[in-house]
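$ ./design --mode recover --in tokens.txt
reading tokens...
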């Protein structure tokens, strides 16, 4: 009888310890990081010094500028501020359509209506079209479209590179088309900011009224 009572107490203690360990595992830094990365990511246009910039937000966290908008060659209807707002909205819609996740979203370059463009692709699309268009490249960036994305990747994964400037001299020869993980770029940009890559939160601009209708309208 005593042995049976001892066995029952032992089993109860084992279950209690197991439950406590499970609770500890659930609160490990790895689990917390995974939970944070599952939060929906949105993109916003903010005022950064004298420029407009696209940043990413996740909860109450923000990245440093990912794209800085400067070119005025597209005319008064598509100023740097307008381009910043529209492209930030397009990136947010791309993530929302992907279930609020960045996974399986990639940035690449292509041609649409005989113009060099940057777009996003996923498992169901491999080319740039009016549905996945992000923006049209200006003349200088168009000399080597992939260099624009290479700079974005450098900034996002090392924190020591440059954000993408929409107007930047480039004399490099054309290279083979490449694709870059949007998830990797954004996540590393968050980590870079947390490690001291940026010290102040940019002043948020107005992101309303930017429905472009999915046309290749000079963005």
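writing sequence...
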């Amino acid at each position: 009888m005593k042995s049976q009572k001892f066995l029952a107490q032992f089993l109860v203690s084992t279950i209690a310890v197991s439950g406590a360990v499970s609770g500890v595992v659930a609160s490990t830094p790895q689990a917390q990081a995974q939970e944070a990365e599952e939060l929906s990511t949105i993109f916003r246009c903010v005022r950064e010094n004298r420029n407009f910039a696209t940043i990413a937000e996740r909860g109450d966290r923000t990245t440093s500028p990912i794209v800085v908008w400067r070119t005025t060659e597209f005319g008064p209807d598509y100023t740097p501020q307008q381009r910043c707002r529209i492209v930030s909205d397009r990136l947010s819609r791309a993530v929302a359509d992907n279930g609020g996740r960045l996974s399986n979203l990639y940035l690449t370059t292509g041609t649409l209506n005989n113009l060099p463009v940057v777009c996003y692709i996923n498992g169901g699309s491999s080319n740039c079209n009016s549905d996945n268009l992000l923006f049209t490249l200006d003349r200088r960036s168009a000399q080597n479209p992939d260099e624009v994305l290479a700079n974005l990747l450098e900034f996002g994964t090392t924190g020591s590179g440059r954000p993408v400037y929409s107007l930047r001299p480039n004399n490099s020869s054309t290279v083979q088309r490449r694709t870059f993980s949007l998830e990797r770029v954004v996540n590393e940009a968050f980590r870079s900011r947390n490690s001291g890559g940026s010290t102040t939160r940019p002043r948020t601009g107005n992101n309303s009224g930017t429905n472009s209708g999915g046309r290749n309208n000079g963005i």
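exit 0
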